[in-house]
Amino acid sequence: ATDSAALFKFKEALQNNSALDNWNSSVNPCDWNRPNWVGILCLNGTIWGLKLEGMGLTGIIDIDSLVPLSHFRTLSLMNNQFVGPFPHINKLGKLKALYLSNNRFSGQIPDDAFQGMGSLKRVFLANNEFSGNIPLSLSTLPRLMELRLEGNQFQGRIPDFRQKNLKTVNLASNFLVGPIPEALSKMNPDSFSGNKDLCGPPLYSCNSPLRALNKKGNTLKIIIGVILLLIILAAIAVALAMFHRKRHRPELERNPSLSMNSNKIAPSYVADQQQCQVPAESSAQSRRSDKLSFVRDDIEKFDLNELLRASAEVLGSGTFGSSYKAAVGSGQALVVKRYRHMNNVGREEFHEHMRRLGRLKHPNLLRLTAYYYRREEKLLVYEFVENGSLASHIHGNRSLEGQGLDWQTRLRIIKGVAKGLAYLYSELPILVPHGHLKSSNVLLDPSMEPLLTDYTLRPVINPQQAHNLMIAYKSPEYAQNGRTSKKTDIWSFGILILEILTGKFPENYLTQGYDSSADIASWVNKMVKEKRTSEVFDKDMKGAKDSKGEMINLLKIGLSCCEEDVESRLDIKEVVEKIEQLREGDSDEDYTGNEGINFSVRGNEDRFSYTVDR
Ligand SMILES: Nc1ncnc2c1ncn2[C@@H]1O[C@H](COP(=O)(O)OP(=O)(O)OP(=O)(O)O)[C@@H](O)[C@H]1O
What we know:
The protein has 614 residues and is an alpha/beta fold.
């Protein structure tokens, strides 16, 4: 009750907060690791954090109201409309991560703003309007690992950051001057680009003649920029003139407010459209562009209006969209996912990618049913899968979901996911096949067969958002260089296997970067090293009595997928083969101790290497 009251107080101070309408005082915010309220992060029944991203929020950030939440560790308000000064966050002394990027905060941040925040590891303030010097207290945060300040108006010199754990710093596009501190000299040069006058490694030496040349180059860039700007302004003027001529455009294109806050997907659109007097010719045009594009022939068709008029239940708000359940036609249940960050893709490119996805057909893939394209917003439509997500079965309220999944079901799910992935790899060899594998993107059909969803969307997601938001189960190399590969998918699969076997929530999901101390693979490694393997498996996993050897083999496969060295990480063919070979009751290895288990320690390193036959 105290936690709920604290959260309500926080919500009250926000404006435009209708995205939080499902916060309900008669329901606990958390059922163990499953949030019942939108935007809450739960861990072991406590409120771990708030992730209120892309909700159009504004108003006051009432930090005081969060102080009573004793387990509160992460606050994300990215991609909203907040304005005004930096909030007084140092009242949340145990905060580990603060994400405020992509708002309109402004003004100088006091030098002592981060004083006493000994646990803070990640600070994201990018793309705001902060000015003045970078606050000194940031440079003394003992555990700081990731700092993103790009796209602000910070000026002056960079403070002397010396933290050993600092892995990522981005200070690009500010007005900083002077030498780059030595501790940052190995960072990516792009992290310092677009500043007034920075020098020293990884940029040009402060005495280098190239630096002067670079400055001249910048002047040239500015001139070219001005010319380009003039061309763009002329193009805008022409476009505006054309816009005025096109009086009778389809209503959906004119009125894009597919209201997220309503229990219908777009009531405002429907109401307006009924009053709209559209001349015959443009009405035909309107129908054409308001059409849903179906990529399947084997299901009952419906039109966009029908879908938009249907009452919709919010299923959740994910990293780059919100999902709604709606029933159309004869009661067919569908899931409509609205994507916000796909507006860099051209119409044709988008259509082509959707048609490519529409051709995919496999028992372990949820097939795309239809999609809708509008420049600023895209809808993808899927069938509703009755048994919900794997995440809800593993982390949800087990008394409701039925005592947790038994071993055979877990093994079947892992085998199915492997087959689905292998199919994607064979059909889309040049793309990163899934790119967003995690337990809420594995759905369970009525016979508990897994269906992968949200796959292969990276080519149509805006690169900037894809980098920030995708790959929840991120590998160390992805966290460092932001590049996906087939091996980043394998890492995510490894984490998924460990999550299924341990029933443990991959905490690393809650952070933007990679934190080995919060990584489930590191935890399993540690437990094995301490000869506590028996404690690793989920206590609620029934039917495991005769299958201990198989469980250990699967644990090894999961860990081999989470090999930090990309080259030694298994590839999909090897993973599928190894998983296919698993049977039940096949081994008499005893997982309560180390005996008979082929674990071997590699050198003096902290991690174990697992002897998995290749
Ligand atoms: N077709 C579906 N049938 C049943 N439940 C679904 C379906 N698609 C998604 N869900 C569930 O709806 C909820 C919201 O899904 P959504 O994809 O919007 O977010 P997410 O998976 O949590 O995050 P992300 O946007 O990063 O994928 C999740 O619990 C998901 O498992």
